[in-house]
Design goal:
The chain has a four-stranded parallel β-sheet. It starts with a strand and ends with a strand. The longest helix has 17 residues, at 79-95. It is of the alpha/beta class and 148 residues long. It has helices spanning 24-29, 40-43, 60-64, 79-95, 130-137, and strands spanning 2-5, 35-38, 53-55, 70-72, 100-103, 114-116, 124-126, 141-144.
């Protein structure tokens, strides 16, 4: 049993409400394993669709450590929602004794490789999303959709 970014299964929970993140390899994996979909941004209280958001000059670890914030393109601070969603995803993982999370690349919540730098210019920096950082801190293995 694994936790998975819900958008990878085609669930319309991305910022724009589309299913453009559906991943064929993850859907194939669903035939062999139990996958529990989570969207930390929705779990944190953000609606779909929503204004794009990025971690400001940092990573998910920086957000958890209070060194960085998550803001949407309109400048609104959504850090509390990101942290709440990460905690809810962790709660689900613990309830089901899940040890692995399949993460959506480049997501400010779920990424396990690169996140946008906060300038909304599509510039990537190395780092994890907020949920991925929290899951890793709690011993959950995180793999990117690109590693499936």
């Amino acid at each position: 049993m694994k936790l998975v970014s819900a958008c990878l299964l085609g669930i319309r929970c991305t910022w724009d409400g589309k299913d453009r993140c559906k991943n064929r390899r993850v859907i194939e994996l669903l035939k062999r394993e139990i996958l529990i979909p989570v969207c930390p941004e929705q779990l944190g209280g953000l609606k779909t669709p929503r204004i794009p958001q990025e971690i400001q000059k940092g990573s998910g670890d920086d957000v958890l450590d209070g060194k960085s914030r998550v803001k949407n393109k309109a400048g609104e601070d959504v850090t509390a929602e990101f942290i709440r969603g990460a905690k809810e995803a962790l709660k689900i993982a613990k309830q089901y004794n899940i040890k692995e999370f399949i993460a959506k690349s480049k997501s400010p919540s779920c990424s396990s490789d690169f996140v946008y730098d906060g300038s909304f210019s599509r510039k990537l920096i190395k780092g994890d999303g907020v949920t991925t950082a929290l899951l890793k801190r709690n011993g959950i293995k995180v793999i990117s959709e690109n590693e499936i």
